[in-house]
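Troubleshooting entry. The earlier prediction with pyridoxal-5'-phosphate gave an output that would not parse, so I re-checked the input for stray whitespace and re-submitted. Clean input:
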Amino acid sequence: MEIDRRLTKASNLAVIEDQELGFGNVFSDHMLVRDWTDGGWGRAMITPREPISVEPSALGIHYGQSVFEGLKAYRGTQDGVIRLFRPNRNAARLEASSTRLCIPTLPAEEFIECIRQLVATDSAWVPNEREHALYIRPMVFASEGHLSVRPAHRYKLVITTAPVAPYFSSQSRALRLKAENRFTRAAPGGTGSAKTSGNYAPTLWPMVSAAKEGFDQILWLDAQEHTFAEEAGQMNIFFRIGDEVVTPELSGTILPGVTRESALRLLKDWGIKAATRRISMEELTEASEDGSLLEIFGAGTAAVIASVASISYLGKEISAAPHSGRSLAERLREELLGIQYGERPDPHNWIQVVG
Ligand SMILES: *Cc1c(COP(=O)(O)O)cnc(C)c1O
């Protein structure tokens, strides 16, 4: 696959030296754009990062016909080699999200090649520090201007990258979640399992309210009864109850996370019982009361594995029992980071090196 290149004459790389790196406040020099018209994808172009012109009636903006992805490029702590983690899973998910939204799909190998070449172009932007990474944000949106609610005839793929620091700057402190019993993120038959733009804006109002009450994130519950745990903000949620780890099953309302899938695989490798099933707030309340709720943690590319201290549900606190020694969350986090930063073996061939 050939990709055209127009490179910047003035790199912005120096700005990350005098700017505190957050999560998405700094962007790298280049981006990749590719248009879809007349039934096919045009040539991909790597260009300096710059504003793109958008048709004012673009269907993607008006009606949310838009999907995105999120993955990272990691620089090996020992060898300096740049690695991608399971980009084929992001390619497959982009395809599933696109199909749900009537957006033309991008062949997986082309998706990965676009990412490889963009990351290679901005390889100097992949941070050296462990737990820092180059976040990669591909998106495809309907660019055709029209007023009808119908699949568009034109689309644009845009991939941008951003050097990022750890998502939760203070993971010295476990998170406090609020189980949201009024608003919902996704309903059966809806788009909860697609990474589509329309799923996120409706979470802002509940998120802002929860933050005002002092919570870090929302634990979303099922839309019908508000009794089953679904996911925590932009992370999948895990519970360690007794000698078993459980996470909600993929029912169509939950985003199928690559981190979730990888964590389940690692638990299986380690001989730890892991189940995917419905988990009621009643079960969690009881496990919290009888001390069998040992751990709660979230899993996602941005935060990797993030420990959760408690969930507030209808005014009551569901807390993980205090434990001594190394948590499973920590073990999973270290294993994933170890593989991503090239420090540990990669028995499942999850890594793709960017040459
Ligand atoms: C992206 C995302 C996740 C995490 O998926 P990963 O592939 O592990 O990064 C979980 N939940 C939601 C709602 C998301 O958008």
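This one parsed fine. Residues 9 and 254 are 43 Å apart (CA to CA).
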